[in-house]
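Title: Request for sanity check on Cystathionine gamma-synthase prediction

Description:
We are preparing a figure and want to confirm that the structure record we downloaded matches what your pipeline produces today. Could someone re-run it with the sequence below and paste the raw structure tokens into this thread? We only need the token string, no images.
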Amino acid sequence: MTATTNRPTNSAVSTNPASSTNSENSAGAASPVSPVDLSSVDLSAMAVATRAIHAGQEPDAATGAVVPPIYMTSTFKQDGVGGLRGGYDYSRSVNPTRDSFDTQLAAIEGARHALAFSSGLAAIDVLLRSTVKPGDRILLGNDVYGGTYRLLSQVFVPWGVGLDVVDMTDLESVSHALESAAYSYVWVETPSNPLLGITDIAATSEVAHRHGAKVVVDNTFASPILQRPLDEGADAVVYSTTKYIGGHSDVVGGAVVLNDDAIRDRVAFLQNAAGAVPSPFDSWLDIRGLKTLDLRVHRHSENALAVATWLQSRPEVERVWYPGLESHPGHDIAARQMRGGFGGMVSIQLASGEDAAKAFAGATSIFTLAESLGGVESLIEHPAAMTHASVSGTTLEVPSNLVRLSVGVEDADDLIADLDAAFARIAR
């Protein structure tokens, strides 16, 4: 699939005067060693940072380009009817760049399969529509992304799928719910959005499986660097790759990661049938993001811990929600199932109420007032009026005095100084 180029032939190189008179290239020089094909190397035993850079990223066979090309094509030439090259026919169904990202993400997660989507909600939608039917039920945590609740309550419930809400951090409440009704899925966010609740994935998976339910973990806040839910017993993992995986606030995407071959095939069928796929360029942006994910997530976590610790000392702050703090109710569980940090998200409740929260969210300079999270730049928002407005008036309604911080990778002292100045501005 590469164009013919005017590259020099071997004979042209051998007759070059410089090369023919160079004593280092004359008889007696060591024969070159044949390079090892990266595809033959077992990356599974290597560290996640190594897998993130090399899995699915073999240099281009035609040119040797270290970064594989972006296959910006909608269709592929066939060598005779049905004569597909490498199985590629149409980019809604398959595309080499998307395949590269799928391979890379699965390797980082330690999973058999990963499938990329055009958004995180598209990933959730296809996973559920391919595996549930009217009459089935889903058990949802009471602190989740507003878009997830909107999709389930306003799309799946009218379709005939039952939805119940429970405090997913309370294992006794989860167990009681599972004893009261049959569920197809237990839907977990940990850390949750926006209150950073922590669910024990292993314990929840054990009790769910005992009652015949599967467990899906939205791992967006932790990323596969800090937490690997499949290893803890979950059946599937979903991501908004827009966030930490993309990492630069310049791409929208999602992913489903799992080990079950049959469910993977059902998800892949509906993905193709419904067409909820990312473009090749979006896939490449996620590939680029994954390569530096290990570095970025640890910096996010270090900065967030510094910011959260400082916020604890502020009289304007009623409560700080961050699992890295020993005061957090889920700290011990997070310390066990999250490895290498506690993530870059911090939420705070302001003592002076909703108006103060909104004023504070608009008073920063380095923290940008915007929805989303997980980019290199720090963001701030008021969830009740922004990301979680859709859950207003429901059991998932968030506190009106809550402010959510996505702590970026800037200098931590500069971030703290920005928040300090914001407090001073709203106090005037």
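Thanks, this matches our download. The longest strand covers residues 345-350.
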